[in-house]
Amino acid sequence: MAALTTNVVPLVGLRFDNLMAAATSGDDCATGTGVLLIVNNGSAASVTVTLATPETVDGDLAVDDREVAVAASGWAVIPVTDRYRNPSTGRCAITYSAAADVTVGVVRTAAA
Q1: Domain encompassing residue 32
Q2: Which of 22, 31, 76, 104 could cross-link 85 (Cys pair, CB 3.0–4.6 Å)?
Q3: What's the pTM value of the predicted model, to 2 decimals?
């Protein structure tokens, strides 16, 4: 599992061309207000990106993980709120149905 670095977007903007290959074993990233996971699917098939949701309600009822389908040759921008924060690591666990030709990056908006 690779730890994705969060790039802070300054008010003047950010050139964002440093996406990295998605790890076949999954990745993790910071969570919080304004944190976004950017996914570029360069493959010829749809890929599902899953953000683990460690939360439970009523003591034992697990909240479903967030699954986002990214179309072939498509892009997705996925908010990574604190809902996905694993209490033991402080980060969001991310997995991919396939990682070949998938690149990812994490950005966080700067405070105004």
Answers
A1: 2-9+19-109
A2: 31
A3: 0.92
3-state helix, strand, coil in the chain (%, to 5): 5, 45, 55
CATH number, residue 94: 2.60.290
The amino acid occupying position 68 is V
Is residue 14 in some structural domain?
no
38: tokens are 């950017």
Residue type, 106: V
Residues of the chain scoring pLDDT < 70: 111-112
d(C-alpha 2, C-alpha 91), whole Å: 12
Q: Is 87 part of a structural domain of the chain?
A: yes
